[in-house]
Design goal:
alpha/beta; Rossmann fold; globular
Length: 290
């Protein structure tokens, strides 16, 4: 099966006042058509910057230095003009950002922004038809008062509502690659489950590939076909989801699995291995919560 995304030996560093900081150290990963692949690791391990490199968002920074092969649907992204790369975003390549406020324009209504997104795929789409499609997309993410939401500005909606709007926009043009960076952070568990079903349906119906970035290992286990484990900018382990969860080979992967809280008889999260204290502290806190 053809790879939709292929990354080989990707290096990323940033130049600062005190020198150069190396963030990614030669990572490689691939995603086939219709495949759901998870990238997991603690905060600061390099997950989100990997997504931004794929989208071409860091290549434009004068302080960043990127080396390695990047291919999307057989196209060499490294030789692609910035305008062509921009044309991919929101159409063939889409992302659900963890913070919806970074994705929505505060001076335009949700309806206006939906029209703009849908017209990226179909430039001559009429406003009325675009708003009808936008309403359908909002209903799919459990927003039933879509008329109010379409006429609202982002600051008039809650964080969770904005997150659902962003998810609907990302799915609007049925992209070939969907990058989901912690898509359920601001959502309750019911809507999280519905969002995962939507992404799963998209892969099955449209052949969309998904790069799923998450701290929630329980969700990853249910959703992903394969898993890449990243630690300090290195891919330390990868393989089928079942294998990674049942027989983790790397010490860091084992620590991640141990960091998942388990309820004891008294309802207190139980940690099986104290290695997590120094190997993956942020994973424990992210999973358990404040």
């Amino acid at each position: 099966m053809t790879n939709v995304l292929k990354i080989e030996n990707l290096h990323l560093s940033f130049r600062g006042y005190t020198g150069t900081s190396k963030v990614l150290h030669g990572i490689s990963l691939s995603i086939k058509k219709g495949e759901r692949v998870a990238l997991v690791g603690e905060s600061g391990s390099g997950k989100s910057v990997t997504a931004r490199v794929i989208l071409g968002l860091l290549q434009e920074l004068r302080t960043s230095k990127i080396k390695g092969a990047l291919e999307f649907n057989g196209q060499n992204l490294n030789t692609m003009h910035s305008s062509d790369w921009q044309a991919l975003r929101g159409t063939d390549m889409s992302m659900i950002f963890q913070d919806p406020t970074s994705s929505l324009n505060p001076v335009f209504t949700i309806g206006d922004q939906f029209v703009e997104v849908l017209r990226r795929r179909t430039p001559k789409l009429e406003i009325k038809a675009a708003l009808v499609r936008a309403a359908e997309l909002l209903v799919s993410v459990s927003i039933n008062d879509h008329e109010r939401v379409l006429n609202a500005f982002p600051f008039q909606l809650s964080g969770g509502m904005n997150q659902r709007v962003v998810i609907a926009m990302a799915l609007a043009n049925k992209p070939a690659l969907l990058i989901a960076d912690e898509p359920g952070t601001a959502l309750d568990v019911t809507v999280q489950a519905q969002t995962l079903r939507l992404m799963q349906d998209l892969t099955e119906q449209s052949g969309t590939s998904v790069l799923f970035i998450s701290h929630n290992l329980g969700v990853v286990r249910e959703f992903a076909d394969r898993v890449y484990v990243i630690y300090r900018g290195n891919i330390v382990e990868s393989g089928p989801t079942k294998t990674i969860f049942e027989k983790p080979g790397h010490a860091y992967t084992q620590a991640l699995m141990s960091a998942v809280p388990r309820l004891t008889g008294g309802g207190i999260p139980e940690i099986e291995d104290d290695r997590v204290a120094f190997l993956a502290p942020s994973v424990f806190h992210d999973e358990v919560g404040p």
